Amino acid sequence: MDKNKLQHAILKEIDIGNIPLNAEIFGISDIEFVNNVNSLMAKKLIVNAKIDFTSSLYEAEITSDGENYLNENSTRGKIYRTAKEIRDWIK
């Protein structure tokens, strides 16, 4: 998955309160998930992120910069929601 799409998806899930999150939800490796969460923290798009030993993100808050990022990338969000709905429907 493209890094920007993945980070947008993680931000969106945090924004709507769908936590805990983990790599499996996004179909990526634990390392890739942790690296992307760390990147979001470094960009100050999320704060207070806590990842446990199973690489699950169980607490995080989206910052105002994170909200701005989501608003500026709303088209990406619409695509993500549609893909998620299709994935949920297929299950």
From TrEMBL:
InterPro entries: Phage_Tuc2009_YjcQ, WH-like_DNA-bd_sf, WH_DNA-bd_sf
Highest rank taxon of the organism: Bacteria
Protein name as annotated: YjcQ family protein
Stored Pfam families: YjcQ (PF09639)
Transmembrane annotation, as ranges: none
Gene3D superfamilies, alphabetized: Winged helix-like DNA-binding domain superfamily/Winged helix DNA-binding domain (1.10.10.10)
